[in-house]
Amino acid sequence: MVIRFESTTKQYPDGTVAVDALDLTVPSGAITVFVGPSGCGKTTSLRMINRMIDPTSGRVLIDDVDVASERPARLRRRIGYVIQHAGLFPHRTVVDNVATVPVLSGTPRKEARTRAYELLERVGLTAAMGDRYPAQLSGGQQQRVGVARALAADPPVLLMDEPFSAVDPVVRHDLQAELLRLQGELGKTIVLVTHDIDEAIVLGDHVAVFAEGGRLAQFAPPEELLASPADAFVAGFVGRDRGYRGLSFATAADLPVEPVTAEGTVVEGLALVLDDGRPTGWRDPDGRLLPTEGTHTADDSLRVVADLALLSPAGAAIRVDAAGRAVGLVRQTTVADVVRQRQRSRLAVGAVGGSAG
Amino acid sequence: MSLDYLLDAAHWSGPDGFPHQILEHLRYTGLALLIAMVIALPLGVLIGHTGRGAGLAINLGNAGRALPTLGVLMLILAVTGVGLKPVIGALVVLAIPPLLTATYAGVSSVDRGVVDAARGVGLREPQIALGVEVPLALPVILGGVRSATLQVISTATIAAYVAQDGLGRYLFDGLAVRDYPRIVAGAVVLAVLAVVVDALLALLQRVVVSPGVRPRAGSRRRTALPQPER
Amino acid sequence: MTLWHQVLDYLSVNGEDVRSAVLQHLYLALVPVVVAFVLSLPLGWAVVSYGWVRHPLLTLTSVVYTIPSLALLLLLPGLLGTSILDPFNVLVALTVYSLALLVRSTADGLAAIDASVVQAATAMGYRPLRRWFAVDLPLSLPVVLAGLRVAVVSNVSMVSIAALVGIGGLGQLFTRGFQLGFYMPPILIGLVLSVAIALVLDALVVIAQRFVTPWARVAAR
Questions:
Q1: What is the tally of structural domains in chain A?
Q2: ipTM
Q3: Which residue among A90, A176, A290, C61 is the one 20 to 30 A from B28 at the CA level?
């Protein structure tokens, strides 16, 4: 399911241009994030896909079919929709909320409910919660129900409008991880709107940055967005610590690791204390035990390693194996060297690419 | 529908004329309201401020709505005998529930944060009640005054069935002798009086309420306030 | 003879009259509520949906609500061409009052619905009419039914006024008491029955409310 915007423009009667000649192809089976400051037209663009808003000029196509040629209600039943406060029906039980679209499309209620219970478990809730009313769930649980409801009719396209903005950071992190896990199983074409650049970078396979006045400033994978912002607006929006955030996209696997020796490892006067191979802390010369501040594996990102190296009292991030046994150390200086080399090679490639373009 | 009686100049002067009867009507109404307000407003503020007796205030409002005014009037007159004082007494009894409930509702619904802040800057309880809660509750309290006023104007008409003067005279005298034009005249004047008084109170509501207090969507929320019988 | 004995005595002699007065009272009070309730749904919807309807309609209902019931009851024969003694006047007058009340509460109820819920319903593919019955109407019910309670109770107490123009209902017991020289028993019986009917009907609406909006109690916790 490819969604294509063809010079799509939305102008309101008062003259405000919400979306200005948007040309964009949302790739199939991936998460595309629309991000930008408020009033940049990202939500308007999203809502033109399921015809909650019709464009003033230009077209929106789903698999080469103009959405304007379809009856709105029927179109919408094929497109899942998740909004900020979940927008659950307070007067229906959770399971009936989830079963809404299948029932609308003519699935027998009993069958729709059976599937709804399954879906609840799929989004990390229990079937028992299905018999409660939305008001009896926490904000994060409600949002999960919102996702389940959007998925109930198994739509190929999922639209999400600030889905995780109203929940606290811890819950938001869980929900984001859950979405990525689900998407790994389902492979839907997802368009997600957010004003949070961090969320865009975590979730997006592709990120469209919108600027004020409904202009598309850049459309690129998040890594590229951080590494080479198209203009000053994007650079400003992406933020000052984009270098650090860019480390999220590099793996720790290639880092040179200093092995941990059996007879004891001492770094900067601190001795690594192991219990059956698992790190428990650093002992200083006075005999006090300092915390490790965490460990990492080869699967973690460079950002995690850099963070651990900065936090560690010894200035070294502890690498562990799958069983949690210490296998080596990565020092701050090593991380810095690797980052510097990465940056040099990337900019060299970028310069070549830039002159070719 | 004949308006002859209403438009006849002869009926607009003298002791049986409209001006005199309108004034009589307003006299009972005003007196009864005044007494009811002296009783109900302080009590409502007290209940709203302390939260003690809230159940009483709410239930009194509901009970007031369920009371048939004609029955209450008859019962009081049956106990006390006919006269101006018993009639006024009946009007007072019927005006108290809407006033009390609205005052309680208005005061108790004032934002607790504002009350806390007032306490925090060192205001004493009476100062909080009169200086903070009452001004903020004024739209709701005045809504109650409007309801009670309509109630009393309406019931004062019924009092004429038994004894008193007032606009009810035209209705009941007209009914007695089957003089429909006289009935129409009385009903029209009564309706206009009620609408005008209510409009004046609405105006007062707008003038008196602090400009900082946003009038709640429909300060006459009929559904939220007790509705008296007219 | 104590008052209590007088009351029992009155009931044993006039039991049939009292019974028919109760039935007449219920009829005159309830028919208008039902009619007004049905009419208030489309009108309340119009108030919320069309800005230009709102002001004139709500002003009209509010002015109508201000007119004393006895005045309206006596003006209606001239407007409708009915006789003064026709119970139809009472039905119309009470329907008008109930409607004034219920249009407002229906409009309030519809306006209080969380817009994001309605939007979600639209985005899921509800067509407007079906959405109105499946989402908007049920969600407005707590406020609408609160208005209905007020209308039912007000009507029951207001019907008594009809006795002043000679139309039946419990109000007749009051005028009877007056005609008998403020004889207490009928007045007391009428008063108690009228209040009892109002409270019972109010309780019935509350029970219905719990039945049709089980979710509202949950949300209030």
A1: 2
A2: 0.88
A3: C61
Residue of A nearest to C137 (CA): A91
Q: Which of A241, A272, A306 is where one domain is finished?
A: A241
The tokens of B188 are what?
């029209």
Whether residue A160 is found in the same domain as residue A284:
no
Q: Is B175 near chain C, with CB under 8 Å?
A: yes
* Residue showing tokens 């489309």: C42
Measured CA distances, A163 to A139, A142, A171, B39, C120 (Å)? 11, 11, 12, 54, 12
Domain extent listing, chain C: 3-215
User: Tens digit of pLDDT for each residue in A205-253?
Assistant: 999 999 988 899 999 998 888 888 889 899 888 877 777 777 888 888 8
Longest Cα–Cα distance in chain C = 74
Query: Would you identify the CATH topology of the domain C3-215?
Result: MetI-like fold (1.10.3720)
Residues A227 and A332 in one domain: no
Residues 6+ apart with CB under 8 A from A56: A9, A10, A11
Q: What share of chain A in percent tops pLDDT 90?
A: 48
Mutate to test the interface with B, among C84, C187, C189 (most CBs of B within 10 A): C187
Which region among A204-213, B12-21, B92-101, C116-125 has the lowest average model confidence (pLDDT)? B12-21
A101: tokens are 């679209």
Q: Are residues A181 and A300 in the same domain?
A: no
Judge whether A49 is closer than 8 Å to chain C, CB to CB.
no
Tokens linked to B222: 């009929």
pLDDT 10s digits, C170-216: 999 999 999 998 899 999 999 999 999 999 999 999 999 999 988 88
Nearest chain B alpha carbon to C149: B223
Q: B4-208 has which fold?
A: MetI-like fold (1.10.3720)
Q: How far is it, in rounded angstroms, from Cα A229 to Cα A236?
A: 9
CB contact under 8 A, C125 and A91: no
Burial zone of B64 (CB within 10 Å; 0-12 exposed, 13-18 middle, 19+ buried): buried
Touching C (3+ Cβ pairs <8 A), the chains are A, B
Tokens, residue C197: 């009917």
Q: Is B91 on the interface with C (CB under 8 A)?
A: no
Interface check for A319 against chain C (CB to CB < 8 A): the answer is no
Is B198:C65 a contact under the CB 8 Å cutoff?
Answer: no
Structure tokens at A53: 């808003």
C-contacting residues of B 20-49, CB under 8 Å? none
Which residues of C are less than 8 Å from A91 in CB distance? 135, 138-139, 213, 215-216
State the residue range of the domain holding A174.
3-241
In this structure, of A193-197, B12-16, C158-162, the range with the lowest mean pLDDT score is B12-16
Instruction: Sort A349 into a burial class: Cβ within 10 Å, 0-12 / 13-18 / 19+.
Output: exposed
Put simply, the answer to whether C191 touches B71 (Cβ < 8 Å) is yes
Q: What is the pLDDT of residues B28-57, one digit of tens each?
A: 899 999 999 999 999 999 999 988 888 888
Phi, psi (deg, nearest 5) at residue A271: -100, 130
B154/C70 Cβ within 8 A: yes
Share of chain B above pLDDT 70, in %: 90
Q: What's the pLDDT tens digit per position in A81-127?
A: 998 888 899 999 999 999 999 999 899 999 999 999 999 998 889 98
- B-contacting residues of C 128-187, CB under 8 Å? 143, 146-147, 150, 153-154, 156-161, 163-166, 170-171, 174-175, 177-178, 182-184, 187
The tokens for C77 are 């024969």
